[in-house]
Amino acid sequence: MAQPVFYQTLNMIGVDPTLYYTNLATAGGSVTPEYPAPPFVPGTLAFGSDGSQFIFVQASSAINLTDFVAINTGQAVAPYQANSVNTTNIFGSLLMGIGSSGLVVKQSVTTIPAGAMFWACTKGQFVPATTSGTVMAATVTAGVGPVALYVALTGVGTGILTSVSTTLSPGIAGIVCINSLTVSIAGSIVPPVGTLSNGFTIGPVVAMNNPRLIIVGTSTSPVSANAATNTGSGFAF
Prior knowledge:
By secondary structure, this protein is mainly β. It is 0% helix and 35% strand.
């Protein structure tokens, strides 16, 4: 499976979801002539090929590449903040939505630094979810459909969605694991991107359509212990 190629379908210059921006006063870096300020206003939406959709956000803490992120309103001086998703921030009162950092592949092989600005993916096909590789499966049950995905418990790790239901883990609608296979591609086969000189690892991959919380199970026996407060209300985008 190849990294999806994004091209925008609106008349916006400079949209590149494979990049993050750190040389900004707002990101704690030195101001440069190229980027004296974020290239887009936080909260800007971008629409692209194959129905993909992105929102421009700021990482309020370091985010592992391919992590799923909880996007919240932030504050007036720092709106649209993103953190690696966990069972605490997913229930935050400021939560606006769930996105993915899976298309950010340049500059660093490990993380998006705290304070950096980037495009979080909220809709798209074949989005890499490598950090979820050990706990995410694409099993399809006859008569039921694809396996449900949940926010992983803190002990498993942050930024991870899992196909293993747990008592504290809310279910997520609008996202499906397409393939749980993890493939490592040598740098001699795929030209290095940015500093990824040792090749590229991808998998599993997901299809996303504005993921949101849901109650999984029945009214008398919900999978999520937090189902009473997990209403699955719509998000802002």
